[in-house]
Design goal:
This protein is of the alpha/beta class. It has three domains: 123 residues, Beta-Lactamase (2-Layer Sandwich), CATH 3.30.450; 173 residues, P-loop containing nucleotide triphosphate hydrolases (Rossmann fold); 146 residues, Orthogonal Bundle (Helicase, Ruva Protein, domain 3), CATH 1.10.8.60. 46% of the residues lie in helices and 14% in strands. The protein is built from 20 helices and twelve strands. Strands 2-1-5-4-3 form a five-stranded antiparallel β-sheet, sandwiched between helices. Strand 9 and strand 10 form a beta hairpin. Helix 11 packs across helix 13 and helix 15 packs across helix 17. The radius of gyration is 39 Å and the shape is elongated. It starts with a helix and ends in a 14-residue tail after the last helix. The C terminus is likely disordered.
Amino acid sequence: MIDDANRVLSTLSEVIGSYELNEIIEWAIRFSFRNPYGGLTIVDKEARIQFMDTATEEFFGLKQGEAKGVDIRKLIPDSNLALTAQTGKPVIGGIWQVRGIKRISSVYPLIKNKEIIGAVGTIVFDSLEEIERINGEIQRLKKEIRDLKQKQKTEHTSLYTFSNILGNSSLIRETIKTAQKIATLHTDVLIVGESGTGKELLAHSIHSLIYPEQPFIKVNCPAIPFELAESQLFGYEKGAFTGATSVGKAGVFEAAEGGTVFLDEISSLPLSIQAKLLRVLQEREVTRLGSTKTKKLHFRSIAATNVNLQELVKEGKFRQDLYYRVAKATINVPSLRSRPEDIPLYLNNFLATINLAFKINIQGFSREALNILVHYDWPGNVRELINVLEQIAIKVWNDDQVLTEHLPEEMRMRAKGMIKKSAATDSGLNMRQHVSVMEKEMIVYALTKADGNRRKTAELLDMPRSTLYKKLAAYNIVNETSPDKTKQ
């Protein structure tokens, strides 16, 4: 290679004449010969080879120096060296077909006193196949990056909107209306409700209304190990603790920049973390573990709890100042037992989902089974309802109805007790009113089951259509059913 460098310097001196190469040009030429993927050819104005590096000569089966004087077009017809030597126009990134192998090259003119005296050609890579290999590797890496970004986007994206919240009761409608108003105020929110009522679903919906394209970071507070809580929430710098990455890591609040942090079951956070969380929420800035620098952030906080935080404040288990901070706006999610009129809708919706998932076709519920399900108090709320339906799906044969014997025994006993208690203790609800409530629930369920078709609804209820119309009007059921669901 050093010999080739000396030869090309000598050749250029001969071609250019008295032109003196400076040290930078000499260094550049010598450097090019240290590149195992490079090759160099110099021709005069008549396209006769004045220099060809040893490796290229060997490629053509020539001994060192035998290429000199040979017309380059005889060895490489499409090298562009002859054209550049005539026109003075460089050709960068051209493709040479050399003995059946494609090579990428660049050709530049040699000019002395404004006159073209030859051309120099360089091989950029060994072959086009090498370019394609490297390009393939680049594309593979790009795909991995895209996949990682998509995975991160999926993990940090809200999945639900208000349209995913089921229910026609006044309680759930009022809850949704309140949540929609709060969503537009860009304030921090505290969602309170029993386990299984759909607090996370509501948090997703609040975020999606205003920030659908921004990150939604969920923090399952009870699942955070005590010793890692600070680093996971607020991030850390490199070397902050044993096991820390060499580049540090952003915490959830930094990851949620421009979006929402959802602190699920915030009551489980230890008091030591609550103090630092208060500062982040109050100042909207975070300091990573192991750092003294603060970073300003813009995010919305949504917290959720299934316990009474005010009681925890009295017990000294939750900071009062943090409570006032997270509870700027509070939404109470109603339990399922407080809105029994929504139960048939939930049953029908989730049964359809289970039928699809299990590839079965359970044909609804008997009147007795539905009566028990409606009067059951559902301590686990919607989450328990789904679990019960999955248990039922194992017991019921395809194309059959859900009967009372398919229900869990504890549910049957508990629901019957609730029915008796309701009839015996509610002095403001006589037998006729009690029957009316049940009748309305049955009609709403049958109407949903029939996809709003009144004729089919009447058949399911074994009721004349004229009687059904009167009861729809009497119970104001028409208003509770969307217009496209009241088919004749």
